[in-house]
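Bench log, entry 3. Co-assembly request; chain sequences pasted below exactly as received.
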Amino acid sequence: MRLLEVKNLKKIYTTRFGGNQVQALSNVSFSVEQGEYVAIMGESGSGKTTLLNILASLDKPTSGEVFLDGKNIVTIKDSEISAFRRDNLGFVFQDFNLLDTFSIQDNIFLPLVLAQKNYQEMNSRLQSLSGRLEIEEILQKFPYEVSGGQKQRAAVARALITKPKLVLADEPTGALDSKAAMNLLKIFAAINHLGQTILMVTHSVAAASHANRVLFIKDGEIYNQIYRGSMSNDDMYQKISFTLSVLASGGEDLE
Amino acid sequence: MNKFFYPKLALVNLKKNGNTYIPYILTCIGSIMAFYTMVSIHSNKGLDQMPGSINLKMILFLGIIVIGIFAVIFLFYTNSFLIKRRKKELGLYSILGLEKKHIARVLFYETIFVTVISLSLGLIGGILIGKLLFLLLLNVVHFKSPLSFHIDYWGLLITTGVFLAIFGLTLLTNFLQVKLSNPIDLLKGGQHGEKEPKSSWIVTLIGIVSLGTGYGIALSVETPLEALLLFFVAVVFVIIGTYALFISGSITLLKQLKKNKKFYYQSRNFISVSGMIYRMKQNAVGLANICILSTMVLVTLSTTVSLYIGQEGMRRDFYPLDVSIVGEAANTDFAAVKAIVESEKDKLKVRSNNEISFDLAHFRAFQESNHFLKDMVADESTDAMYYERISNITLIPLDDYNRLTSGSKSLAENEVLIFSVGDNYGEPTIVFGDEQYLITEQLESIPMDFKKTQDMGHTYYLIVKDAGVMDGIYQTMRNDDDPVTTLHALMFNLDGDEDTLNTFSANMRAAVLQNNPDINIQNLYEALTELYFFFGGFLFLGVFLGSLFMMATVLIIYFKQISEGYEDSERFEIMQKVGMDKTEVKKTIGKQILMVFFLPLAGAIVHVAFAFPVITKMLAAFRLTNITLIFLCTLVGVVVYALVYTGVYLLTARSYYKMIH
Ligand SMILES: Nc1ncnc2c1ncn2[C@@H]1O[C@H](COP(=O)(O)OP(=O)(O)OP(=O)(O)O)[C@@H](O)[C@H]1O
Ligand SMILES: [Mg+2]
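Structure output for the full assembly:
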């Protein structure tokens, strides 16, 4: 089943003063199947965050369409967009984005409280997540009292607790050391095994090698993609590294 | 490295942090101006020549002390706020390779710049505004003849010294901060804002108890004397209570709310309760400061304004008639005195009315129900009730009373009429020594005095059968330092414009005293000058300090808004990302900000309400008993202050909203 469909996405930023225009996305089309784990890679400035922000309905494209589960999110009214985001999407950010006013537990509860779920329900959902994410110990602590890896696992819990259709992650391992990053990638793989669809932007080859598929973006366009097929993580790793080096040398078409 | 590197970097830093450093420098300038102005007015030579200047100088000196203490506390507070906000920047420098001693050097140059700018502008401003304020002071104390006002070099020197010391100390604490911290701490420093106060039931309890005690004292004070003695005790309790409750009480309460899961996990409460906990943790001390400062502004302004406006009314209490001339009947030629007065009146064409003259005897005695004792019980002097029982007693022969009232009352040897200035005398008889006298009538009025509220002790006028009886009682009751014989009084009111009457009063005093050095002259117009000096000085200081505290409040609010805005802008973004509506986020945050900023004002108003009874009692000690007037002054003060406060809030809120967009 096709969960996400992106068609001819284009994004032009106009700087506030004067007509200086930046074309962040020129023409992006791809689709994601239910249960897939897709990594997006590309050089700095190639438009990855821009793409993710549009998918997250945090930003509007200049033109093009995005269908999530058959619904065009580009045309959703402003007044409904928050609720839509809350109900359908989960986010994991590079810098965690936890609120320092809340304990870890309350940070995780936040989307559910906003959706007006009752406490029992929230608690039971948290029970089933906290074990898997190894965050039981820190639930009552505040974000500034825990480590980066713990923060990111809490952010994952917050993304998953609404049972979203799609989890979007922008460089989730970017601020973590290699051990914590490894740990997080295992968690992503595990939840993907349970059927969670994940779209992850990353610079890390190791991170991308866990995915089912890797999309490469160059200059605002999809440049290439690698399917895992029956490859092992190591094979994936080598293939990704190779593609990236070609990409970096500005190389000719790979296909 | 270029030798201008550090000064340049320091200058760049100040510019970059302009939105906090400019207000800080303005505060420094303001404090320096205030301090110098006070010092230079206090040391003005011209003031010494004025009558009553001793009181005024004392008040001004008090002002210098208060401003000095205030400047130390406040500049330290703002400096610590600034340096905390800059820790991240300083940490960055050290990561980029500046050693601690280099950072210290940058801080040193920054302080130098701040000091030079503040001192030069502050002193120039002080010199300019000092003259203006001096004229204002002369105006409120009703002093007419012009006095010159020069630049006070000593004042400049003292001010420079005091503030150099303050700046030096702030620099030292900044050095210490940098020295004691490692780069990681510095990088994290700005994130948690002020030190987290621990919330605990014990502190909350202490807060409730001391606030309750303070309020209790305020409400239970009964006499002006108690009020004067206990006011500062109450103030200390209220201050302790305010800090404890802001720091701990608020958080304890909010945490209690948080424990109620059903209430807490409602989308609206969820965000406001945790938001408020966080804000209170960060701002408790600052908010308590605002609350205390606001209370101080309100109390200072309302009391000084009440006193100033009310002095017209209160002077009558001291002087039932404008002039009273009292001397020993036996060795004073009152006909001659009267002739001198008349001739002085003629010289200036002053007219008088209500002229009365009579014999009298006056003494103080200690009242025990209907017994009046000569010896005061000395060892009870700590008891406030002791002062309640001291009575001022004036004896007047019936002849004089009948003549003055055109009455024809008669009395037997052991009978008296009584007039009590305060509450009526409740006993049927009155006993002096071994003699008991029967009260035949409680008089409602008397020519030489009138009914008024008595703040301590009693004042009785007794009409006795004749001079013989009067002298008999007097000789039994008089103390060793009282005059040997009974007295005679001449009293009258004056008509004319104030200036003429002032001149007349001075002339008359000189002329009368020339021939009768022992005579006692009390003159409303002479006293008035002193009163004006006293209350005018108070008013001046009140308004002066009021404005200074107000400035401090404004600055704290501004700093708070900026730091809130800085952090809220991040929070604002995250909340939207997790799926909260933009307008909803704005609404909840706006509500919290409003609550945080108006909590101190509400606290201050409650404090003032509870202080009101004490204030009225205290002012009664200055013979200001017009409670309606005091109430109006306080009310106007509160309303005006609330308006100014709201205005400041709205202005600073703008920079806040700019930051979160
Ligand atoms: N708000 C904005 N206004 C103007 N230009 C923008 C804005 N955001 C991004 N850009 C530009 O769009 C282009 C793509 O930016 P984007 O953040 O999507 O890159 P990225 O692939 O996420 O890079 P990185 O890997 O460094 O995070 C860049 O040239 C960037 O300068
Ligand atoms: Mg990016």
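Strands of chain A lie at 2-14, 21-33, 37-42, 63-68, 71-72, 89-92, 166-170, 197-201, 213-218, 221-227. The longest strand of chain A covers residues 2-14.
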